[in-house]
Amino acid sequence: MNVLLPQPYLLFLGETTEPGYAKTAFGLRDWSPQRCLGEFSLPGATVSTGLPFLTPVQARNAGARAMVIGVANAGGFIPQTWIGALLEAMQAGLDLVGGMHARLRDIPVLRDAAMQYGRRLIDVREPPAKIPVASGRRRTGRRLLTVGTDCALGKKYTALALARAFQAHGEAATFRATGQTGILIAGGGIPMDAVVADFAAGAAELLTPDADPTHWDVIEGQGSLLHPAYAGVSLALLHGSQPDVFVVCHEPGRDRVLGHPDFAVPDVLDVIDLTIRLGSRTSPHIRCAGVSLNTAKMDTGAALRLFDRESERLGMPVGDPMRGGKAFERLVKACLA
């Protein structure tokens, strides 16, 4: 479950126009900035991490050792329009790191070029072999899972921030990555959406084994229990991780499911109720500690007022891990209570 990667990185953004699909690039920029030298994109891209634009040759001359595909499009495929840029990176002396469902090594032209130039094709969306079927057996240790009202709205950031906050409070805590970006940040984990469905809950058990009774596993959530496409991954992760505590993640103002505009984003209360009902099957005492809001599109005053309103409406702490402050500290304390 551990991944050794050539660093530092050039982040590849393709021709992406939807920021939500560039979560790998943004995640690496925000949580592993020391590993990121710049970004490289194709004509038509409107998304940027704010890092310097570097060609693969410029990045290699600056010390980069790999180009990481920084986007995760719907379906996880590698478009034909990217092939030229991926070949250019290998010609410049960079290895390729991908987290897509499509494997770099399964594309003949890339595989041939990697052999020609002596480059590596590294696919991190690769589950371990011989994952067991879930047992449902209770395990020692404490566990927290982030759950969402939709995809790509802060579950990973919330888990990372909570793990760091727990450690600052003197707690033993480990961030457990369940997606390609989290694995790239943490250096290990299991890509839950790449596991055969019958073994997905078992993979979550494998990721969060028996631990010291005081140790926290802070588990990166995936998808949403009410997502029209990805609910199965979310449910398997909930049942297998057996969280004692969960935190709901939501983006204010997002009213339609990302990539599925015919479906409304569910209310936070509906997600809390459903998570408790389904989660109690393997974790009878599961509880919701609070809500993490992604308020990146709001000014500070509006965000703080929203925290107060939602906290009163829901009867629990509400904050934003990226803003921190008193609201987020109340959420941390509620998780540890």
TrEMBL record:
This is DUF1611 domain-containing protein. It comes from Noviluteimonas caseinilytica. Residues 49-127 form the D-glutamate N-acetyltransferase-like N-terminal domain. The lineage of its organism: Bacteria, Pseudomonadati, Pseudomonadota, Gammaproteobacteria, Lysobacterales. Residues 133-326 form the D-glutamate N-acetyltransferase-like C-terminal domain. Gene3D superfamilies: NAD(P)-binding Rossmann-like Domain, P-loop containing nucleotide triphosphate hydrolases.
